[in-house]
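Two quick folds needed for the group meeting slides. Do the first one here.
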Amino acid sequence: MENPVLWTLIAIQVFMGAFDTLVHHEGSERLAWRPSQKTELRLHGVRNLFYAVIFLSFGWLEPHGLFTILLAAILATEVAITLWDFVEEDLTRKLPGTERINHTLLALNYGAILALAGPILWEWAQLPTRAVPTSYGWWSVFATVSAIGVGLFGLRDLLAATRSDRLDRGDPADLVADLPERRHVLITGGTGFIGSRLVEALVGAGHWVTVLSRDLRSVDALTHPVRVITSLDQVHDSDRLDAIVNLAGEPIASGLWTVKKRARIIESRVATTKAVTELIQRLEHKPSCLINGSAIGWYGLRDDEELSEDAAPAPAFVHDVCEAWESAAHEAAACGVRVVVLRIGLVLGVGGGILARLLTPFEFGGGGVMGRGSQWMSWIERDDLIRVISFAMAREDIAGTLNATAPEPVRNADFTNALAQALHRPVFLRFPGWLLSAALGDLAHETMLAGQRVIPTHLQNAGFNFRHPKLAPMMRDITGG
């Protein structure tokens, strides 16, 4: 198959397929960790294994006679699987616009490949049956590398499909069992990793939920029915709200901390929280509580000191963010509203947050220790955090600051080993601190290479019971290990 145009189209197909897999399937959609996509994962797995056979056949063999017919049958089956996959995707998830465009380009390019390869396969089919070894130089090497890549992802997707049922987190309504029936709850940041699960739990339990969001596409993925508003001005003075949960804010780890990025991180939190306070001031029926987000970054960069809610802070940008956010939230107390500030640790769940960014690298053996590995990581499993929010809403005797972290923080090296063991993967790598700092600056220094050893003293004293107090069992549970 010495046709440079055909090989060029195959290379384009490979690169577009890799983009679709890495950016959409592994990146934005995280298909391997969504139980609803079990059938799609199986289709991807079988198709990728077919691709591996096709690449190796084109790269190193000239299949003649019956072998050509067999290869043509594999190509035809792959087309049928792809069409089935398109239908399955449309039925089970809302595809991003970039994924639809990429699929269209893949289909057109594949059609061109089949048009050029068809006459060659027809000619081979007329010859006596045998497999003739051949080589096309670097194109054969490229085909081999491509076959290995799609083969690995194919096997992983088939394994992911088998674990899908073990990823079921149970009835989300159980997470808000502390609340009285039929509460009216306003949530800002309700389309995020934490907020979307809170919405799912509240709606599942029969509560009325209003979500503030300017991203209407993200709202489509929420559990319904919910009331959606794009501005707090759309809440009428006479509307009844029993509680407000304020989680909105610019993602802190989504880009380098430029001057503009730092300003957006702070302003997004403070502006929304001030708007919430203004809403509370004009409501005829005041909510009973404001549950406001914050983070353990309030304590600054610390070493081995155990930090309860009474600990003093140390200087850091993450402290400045949390201090500004908490100060804006406490202004609502002047309206007679009970204010609870949650200093949240690393929120762990396979559907988003820091863990979602680590799963694919760890699954393929690319996980590693950050810097020295001795920095503390104070964490909380996502469903436990939803239970903390419900607990704080329900308990009228709780006000002020709560450390929303599991009772047993761990060092980064222990975290790395626990995740690797849950996924049954080895850990070989270590990412030097100087390299991370050089690439990411203060973002790496404050969020990856330093940490806080935070203890949820007030929660424990109030009688809150963590379902996931220890990291290793929790990792095995949420990853289906």
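Then this one, please, same format:
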Amino acid sequence: MNAPELLPRHDFKNHDLVDDTSKPGVKVEQRPARTPAGEVVPGLFNTWIWLDNPDQFNSYTTDMVKGVILAMRAASNARDVNCVVFTGVGDKAFCTGGNTKEYAEYYAGQPQEYRQYMRLFNDMVSSILACDKPVICRVNGMRIGGGQEIGMACDFSVAQDLARFGQAGPKHGSAPIGGATDFLPVIAGVERAMAACVLCEPFSAHKAYHMGVLTDLVPALKVDGCFVANPTVETQHMVDEFGRFCFGEPKSGSALEEGKALMKRGVVDLSLLDAKVEQLCAKMLLTFPDCMTKTLEELRKPKLDAWNRNKENSRAWLALNMMTEARAGFTAFNEGPKEDREVDFVLLRQKLAAGQSWVGPLHDEVQPGARHRG
């Protein structure tokens, strides 16, 4: 396929905010656009934006938030870009939210600093919702907490079926008001949003698909050269002893042990995920670009309406919360032992009920370290 004659690049105005959009922890890659038949289209690309912090499950630092904003803005402006693919490095996590080490060691107890950080976070979510190109979340692994929120801001989500989803706010000293309480009721309904955001119980990719959170999912476990569905969850509609459907729920007993054994025999292969993402990009290549953008804008309105209505007062509350529960929760997650990263919730509630103030020893008394010292 021959490239058509293009307007010389030096005749274009540059509408990007900065000339250099690079930031540590974020990679940007231009991949050639392809037709549904797999043919490379000269002169057209898909922009892949990678969260590149795999040692910390691609949790985003302040610099990474800036990098995503700049990359989304640049991809939105790029005349030769068809789609944006938003993903993470590795096969363990797309993103697990904000970097808890940075939260605990810098932002905890600093509400004014965190308020400024949350301006950046809000701008990151808004940059996804305002992108003139369709944004596909390639869910290469866990999509938890703030990672789930920025993922749901995307237009499409395609996941490998070993990935887990969910919120972590009330378990770790926050509230999922960086998008989850706005987007999840729109996507999955109020009852399921309530369960996900309040209980903070992670759920499988199969359940996420069943809830309407995903556009598509593919297997990633390869055993003896063949792909198999996640063997640790129910991938067919089953009924438990209470008569409830348990599609996508974790298996139990011997079935779970067999699934874990099969997991150990296999290897993770994301080639089907990449193929599915490329297929989706190719389908959107065969549309009128302005009509597609207008369609995206209209379909984003329910999410945008909720997001714009709440993001500023959410920012203020999250900043002030860094003085109390967020400070305690993020410290516990950052400093607690691997198997025990939550505060003593019962003790905390008892002390608050007895009138103990956050200004004093309360923070230290409910930390995991206090339990182990006792």
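Slide caption for protein two: The CA atoms of residues 69 and 124 lie 5 Å apart.
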